[in-house]
Amino acid sequence: MPDLPKIDFLYLSEPDMIRAGVTDMAKCVDAMEEMFHLLHIGDYRMAGGNNNSHGAVVMFPDESPFPEMPKNTTDRRFMAMPAYLGGSFRTAGMKWYGSNVDNRDRGLPRSILTFMLNDADTGAPLALMSANLLSAYRTGAIPGVGARHLARKDSRVVGIVGPGVMARTSLAAFMATCPMIDTVKIKGRGKANLDAFTAWVAENYPQIQNVRVVDTDEEVVRDSDIVTFCASVATGDPSQYPTIYREWVRPGTFLSMPAPCNIDEGMTGSDVRKILDFSGLYEAYLEELPAPRHIHIPAVGVKYFDLIEEGKLARGALEDLSAIVSGDVPGRRNDEEIIILSVGGMAVEDVAWGTMVYRNAIANGIGVKLNLWEEPALK
């Protein structure tokens, strides 16, 4: 415990975060695995009265009498994602960000993220972090945990829709957990993004000898061992979300869905195992949003709950990755199973990886120490 009441905290820029190991995907996957066990036993808290909320969001109107107020466009928002995580972490934190698709025209990411990590006892700040990489790697690591438990160990072919950041971190996590991968099929909308993705694969994973650009979602899915949809699309019309058709999916496929996704009726059958990253997140949406909810939240897990309310799917058909990680439910049971994982994104993921990166920064003298106060003016 530092000398109180003086409080110092660490500022970690993006270069500092890189030096502190934020891009170490193998360790990030391990941190997410530990986090899932804590979710399963209940040693965590997220936002909302249900303790499972994704976060709190500020949205903007389509029209406003205030000319300087931002107007609603695709993904135009501010969002806060707070959480506490126990176990070996025992920290709290909050990711905060603003999002504007027009940022890309300014040479900026669509969303600009920061993360504040706090001491769970006093509430004092421990670190303020640049969080775009933190968020990207923890998001990709969840499919990696899924692949560790749900993909065939001899998986070689990965099919990807959307060659952006999420595709890179998801593939990095697959490579950390399924090292026999040697082929990637990628579908994207623009040549520049596809070229950038294939160059990144060549630089980082020379063992992937075959990278093929394909034209359709069907080509991505057919004959793949692992499939992931990582494309950003407008939320609101599920018929426009990238869709998985059962006839495309061969036995033994693991499908990881961290981005907008829809499924056909065939994918609702009992021959497809339907895994949620954590059911509490989706049950919170039941309380917070009007039905049907898939128009608001494009995760395939939300689609499942819409189908349950419509009487088209049994609640017992859904399983939890957290229970699988904890050993209470089996992972892949044979090489023929088709398994689809819904990845919703949770604030506890940021706390888990942010805590690990912070501790590494402290151990290695990385970052800039900032002073909150020597002694508080108000006591």
Low-confidence stretches: none
Q: What structural category arises from helix and sheet content?
A: alpha/beta
Distance between the termini: 19 Å
Radius of gyration, CA atoms, in whole angstroms: 21 Å
- Please state the average pLDDT score: 96
Which key phrases capture this entry?
379 residues, alpha/beta, 8-stranded mixed beta sheet, 8-stranded parallel beta sheet, 10 helices, 18 strands, 24% strand, globular
Question: TL;DR?
Answer:
With 379 residues, this protein is of the alpha/beta class. 31% of the residues lie in helices and 24% in strands. Helix 5 links the parallel strand 9 and strand 10 (210-213).
Describe the structure.
The protein contains ten helices and 18 strands. Helix 4 links the parallel strand 8 and strand 9. Helix 3 crosses helix 10. The longest helix is centred in the middle third of the chain and has 19 residues.
Write the layout of secondary structure elements.
Layout lengths: L6 E6 L1 H6 L5 H17 L2 E3 L9 E4 L17 E9 L5 E9 L11 E9 L5 E6 L1 H19 L6 E5 L3 H13 L5 E5 L3 H14 L5 E4 L3 H5 L4 E4 L13 E2 L9 E4 L4 E2 L8 E5 L2 H10 L11 H10 L8 E3 H5 L12 E5 L4 H17 L4 E6 L6
Parallel strand pairs: 1-7, 8-9, 8-11, 9-10, 11-13, 12-14, 13-17, 15-16, 15-17
Antiparallel strand pairs: 1-18, 2-4, 3-4, 4-5, 5-6, 6-7
Helix pairs in contact: 2-3, 2-10, 3-4, 3-10
